[in-house]
Design goal:
heterodimer, A: 115 residues, mainly beta, seven-stranded mixed beta sheet, four-stranded antiparallel beta sheet, globular, B: 116 residues, six-stranded mixed beta sheet, five-stranded antiparallel beta sheet
């Protein structure tokens, strides 16, 4: 059974803190993605990675960075957390190539609150 | 610029009836479409997909219809069940290749409530 896990389900941080969100997948997928979900806005892509040490900006990368040192792990970093980064953060992974590249598998999400 | 739009924020349906969720897109490069279902406090789960070479795909109670000329897709759930109550997202992808890497563009979501 496919599995994507995220390090925390709920997180509360203060403005200005550096925040790390971790995601691990056990499906040997090449592609990994970070989204945020906000009411009325759907899922918006922050960053994605198609290989170890490779990363590409998504639609809303400002204020975020990522790290992928191992194939199974993709980290999202909030360099200096702000209140407008309060959101649900979702990690996903998918296979590379052919039809498999389209179906993404999601983790349970991290609800981040920045005070 | 919202390339995938779900114009109905919510839909309420009686158990046993049909639920129809709609989605419109603007990017003519999109050639693969998916529907995801999301319960509160869980990640989205894949439901059903359709390639642009088809106009219909069926999986049990779920059917997705694609009208390419109208740039419109819809998800039909028949019969609807209370356990179908969730947020439904449509998503679209341009053909993987180059640097697309299977990126998905999601709609805003529609909250479906099925009443017993």
């Amino acid at each position: 059974d496919v599995k994507v896990t995220q390090s925390s389900r709920y997180l509360v941080k203060r403005t200005g803190e550096k925040v790390f969100l971790e995601c691990v997948q056990d499906m040997d997928h090449e592609n990994m993605f970070w989204y945020r979900q906000d009411p009325g806005l759907g899922l918006r892509l922050i960053y994605f990675s198609y290989d170890v040490k490779m990363k590409e900006k998504g639609d809303i990368p400002e204020g975020y960075s990522v790290s992928r040192e191992k194939k199974e792990r993709f980290s999202l970093i909030l360099e200096s957390a702000s209140t407008n980064q309060t959101s649900m953060y979702l990690c996903a992974s998918s296979l590379f190539g052919a039809q498999g590249a389209y179906t993404q598998y999601f983790g349970p999400g991290t609800r981040l609150t920045v005070l | 610029d919202q390339q995938v739009k779900q114009n109905s924020p919510s839909l309420s349906v009686q158990e046993g009836r049909i639920s129809i969720l709609n989605c419109d897109y603007t990017n003519s490069m999109f050639d693969y479409f998916l529907w995801y279902k999301k319960y509160p406090a869980e990640g989205p789960t894949f439901l059903i997909s359709i390639s642009s070479i088809k106009d219909k795909n069926e999986d049990g109670r779920f059917t997705v219809f694609l009208n390419k000329s109208a740039k419109h897709l819809s998800l039909h759930i028949v019969p609807s069940q209370p356990g179908d109550s969730a947020v439904y997202f449509c998503a679209a992808s341009a053909r993987a290749g180059g640097t697309s890497y299977g990126k998905l563009t999601f709609g805003q979501g529609t909250i479906l409530t099925v009443h017993p």
